[in-house]
Design a protein that fits this description.
Elements (H helix, E strand, L loop, with lengths): L3 E6 L7 H8 L5 E4 L8 E5 L2 E5 L12 E4 L4 E2 L1 H13 L8 E4 L3 E2 L2 H14 L11 H9 L14 H17 L7 H15 L3 E3 L1 H10 L4 E4 L24 H7 L6 E9 L2 E3 L12 H9 L12 E3 L1 E2 H11 L3 E5 L9 E10 L2 E3 L11 E9 L16 H14 L3 E5 L7 E3 L2
Parallel strand pairs: 1-10, 1-11, 2-5, 2-10, 5-7, 6-8, 7-9, 11-15, 14-16, 15-19
Antiparallel strand pairs: 3-4, 12-13, 16-17, 16-18, 19-20
This protein binds guanosine-5'-diphosphate (GDP), 6-O-phosphoryl inosine monophosphate and magnesium ion.
């Protein structure tokens, strides 16, 4: 029986997961998203096309690979339909190669309203949610109130929908929040009709049978490990398990059937939304990284916060995921820096530590950085390890040694072709 490989983000999301899944898809038969929902924005670039996917796995442009939306994912039918339409306009017909788990939960219009109402009520303490209804939908899942894809095919669907919406209306009445649900519902039900044209499947059976038959599976994560609901910077996190274990829960693949765990990280750090960020640069250097790196959210367009690479945080993410192989993204963005800082330790309540502690709030923790020499050459046209500058190879070796894990790919641009294999 083949094992499934897992690919996930090791920072606060937007590491470049979409690009790498697209690059790796030719080596796999099945790409399966295991958690999150349309809060994700995974960007793919090839042949002059730039495309952002939110719920649909990043293997969808491959002519034959099967793409699975797993049970751990939450689906907004309206956004899902838009994604399918956008793919159709590029000539991609998903009907034969996109399967949806019957156990995946639906995001209702009222989930989005509750997300917005809850954020507004939190004021300056808001999470900075993408307002896609992610938190409220997962709350209904664990609260055992949720609606699932499999419910769409039952006669009780509308009744279940109404019952849940009544609950939501009561909840909304606690907030001082104006809304007009009747404006949102027709589009949602239309989108449900379009969803029905797709294949609803018991994806846990499908995946395990495929692996039994020697098929190769890549599980695609969304968000990043530092946004994990258990291990991230709670409460400034998303509402799912973004770590490797989430692939087991979110697809029905047993832990002993997980093979390689591929951890994606940027050569620096970014974060969008609120919450602690130890290496954040709220200065010109941070602005320079944001501008050169075009660090603006793929889903919300918000400016991303930027900072230097955080090695204790990276080690933590590698530990909780069991990462076997790393891929370093956006190395090209650091080409303009003579010196690149990396955080090696923290000063935590007056003590120097080399691990990520429980509380990473700036009140308790400041980063200790070390300067490394920059490479100062354009990397974007480079196509082999042999062409990479010595200082970049030293940066790679420094990180590999610090985190005791090999880096197998260095990415030097957003395009599929700008990908350098290190082995
Ligand atoms: P994801 O959510 O992890 O899939 O990442 P996003 O797509 O949200 O954000 C990554 C951004 O960086 C996208 O705009 C990508 O096109 C871009 N990108 C990915 N890899 C590289 C790279 O190596 N260099 C540059 N310059 N851009 C990259
Ligand atoms: P991808 O898959 C970056 C952040 C939001 C917010 C917090 C909670 O593209 O890497 P939510 O809408 O989930 O309730 O928001 O998590 N966030 C992301 N940040 N990349 C993402 O996904 C994100 N998905 C959610 O900005 O801080
Ligand atoms: Mg993204």
């Amino acid at each position: 029986m083949n094992k499934a490989d897992v690919l996930l983000g090791l920072q606060w999301g937007d590491e470049g997961k979409g690009k790498i899944v697209d690059v790796l898809t030719p080596s796999y038969d099945i790409i399966a998203r295991f958690q999150g929902g349309p809060n994700a924005g995974h960007t793919l670039e090839f042949n002059g096309i730039k495309h952002v996917l939110h719920t649909i796995p990043s293997g969808i442009f491959h002519p034959t690979a099967i793409n699975i939306v797993g049970n751990g994912v939450v689906i907004d039918p309206v956004i899902f339909k838009k994604e399918i339409d956008a793919l159709a306009s590029l000539g991609v017909d998903v009907s034969a190669k996109l399967l949806i788990s019957k156990r995946a939960h639906l995001i209702l219009p009222t989930h989005r309203l509750i997300d917005a109402a809850s954020e507004a009520a939190k004021g300056k303490n808001k999470i900075g949610s993408t307002l896609k209804g992610i938190g409220p939908t997962y709350m209904d899942k664990t609260g055992r109130n949720g609606l699932r894809i499999g419910d769409i095919e039952t006669n009780e669907f509308k009744e279940k929908y109404n019952t849940l919406v009544e609950k939501h209306k009561q909840l909304l009445s606690f907030y001082n929040f104006d809304y007009n649900l009747s404006e949102l519902e027709p589009t949602w039900f239309e989108a449900i009709e379009s969803l029905k044209k797709l294949q609803f499947v018991d994806t846990e059976h499908y995946l395990n049978t495929a692996m039994q038959n020697g098929k190769k599976v890549l599980a695609e994560g969304a968000q990043g490990s530092l946004l994990d609901v258990d291990f991230g910077s709670y409460p400034f996190v998303t509402s799912s398990n973004t770590i490797c274990a989430g692939a087991c829960n979110g697809l029905g693949i047993a832990p002993n059937k997980i093979g390689n765990v591929i951890g994606i990280f940027k050569a620096y750090c970014t974060r969008v939304g609120s919450g602690p960020f130890p290496t954040e640069l709220e200065n010109e250097t941070g602005e320079k990284i944001r501008q050169i790196g075009r660090e603006f959210g793929s889903t919300t367009g918000r400016p991303r916060r930027t900072g230097w690479l955080d090695i204790p945080a990276l080690k933590y993410a590698i530990m909780v995921n069991g990462v076997t192989e790393l891929m370093m993204m956006k190395a090209d963005i650091l080409s303009d820096f003579n010196t690149i800082e990396v955080c090696t330790h923290y000063n935590h309540n007056g003590k120097v530590i080399d691990y990520l502690p429980y509380n990473i709030d700036a009140k308790y923790l400041t980063p200790i950085t070390t300067p490394l020499k920059g490479w100062n050459v354009d990397l974007t046209q480079m196509d082999s390890k042999a062409k990479l500058p010595k200082e970049l190879l030293e940066y790679v070796s420094y990180i590999e040694k610090a985190v005791n894990t090999p880096i197998s790919i260095v990415s030097v641009g957003p395009d599929r072709s700008q990908t350098i294999r290190m082995k």
